Amino acid sequence: MSYFDFDALHIEDRKMNEAKQLSLQLAPTQASLLIVGDAGVGKTSLARYIYTKSRSPRLYVLECRNPGGFDFSRVDGGTLMIEDLDCASSALQTELMKLAERTDGTKPRFISTSRRDLRAMVKQDQFRQDLFYKVAVVHLELPRLEDRSVDFQNIVNFILEVSQIMHGKSGLRLAADAYSRLNSWNWPGNIRELENVIERSVVLAKNSTIGPEAIQFEAVAEDMSVDFAPGMSLSEVEKRLILQTLELTAQNRTRAAQMLGISIRTLRNKLNEYKESVV
């Protein structure tokens, strides 16, 4: 998250709490850390949090997706935060290895993030084994937002509060059905997506209550290839929409029904119709 605060937010999820406590334990050390997790779970935020809790005098940031002429010669101790290490090219890995092997006191501490399992990449000869051992002394794995149901309401309230501060608003609240709509989504973009959805609802709010119509999920258009075409019957459009919504929710009928705005009974009846229509 762009404004996630691990100190301000009360965390109940066991895996996330373990990651936070281990981060605090390791922050003042020089151990190289690798933070692994899906896009949007908060890897970069945790990396910066660890840095703020450390004794490191300076921070350098290397984005492996777009290194942009990063000058390794300017690195002088401190902490090097490496974003998306799994995207590092062979040339970039070579430069990082040179940095890791410095013996003149200018070697930085490494705090890296990755969406992929680097150990698997090493086995597939996609990542240098020697570099892996240098940058991944300790692993921290962050869970998906979908797997943090116990924290969901706290996270929503936190983002809602911070979004209001950012945009000069106050007193906004989510209607019960708006929260239900948020809670029914499976959040493929994790906390980053939740942050985007809530911030948009705050910006567009016309009164103190944010209703369900303000909760918009762009991921529906991005993740669902709904191949509608002119001349298609309404029943066929309905069928494709229902089946692809089920696919998006990993066949969770309750969530699919909530997203479609129909009852679970109606959804069940529709699915039975589709089965009966199969020759």
UniProtKB/TrEMBL annotation:
Give the matching InterPro entries.
AAA_lid_NorR (IPR058031), Homeodomain-like_sf (IPR009057), HTH_Fis (IPR002197), P-loop_NTPase (IPR027417), Sigma_54_int (IPR002078), Sigma_54_int_dom_CS (IPR025944)
Which keywords does the record carry? ATP-binding, DNA-binding, Nucleotide-binding, Transcription, Transcription regulation
Where the record annotates domain Sigma-54 factor interaction, the positions are 9-203
Q: Entry's Gene3D superfamilies?
A: 1.10.8.60, Homeodomain-like, P-loop containing nucleotide triphosphate hydrolases
Residues annotated as coiled-coil are none
Instruction: Please provide an example of a Pfam family that matches this protein in its UniProt record.
Output: AAA_lid_14
PANTHER family with a match to the protein in the record: TRANSCRIPTIONAL REGULATORY PROTEIN, TRANSCRIPTIONAL REGULATORY PROTEIN FLGR
The protein, known as: Sigma 54-interacting transcriptional regulator
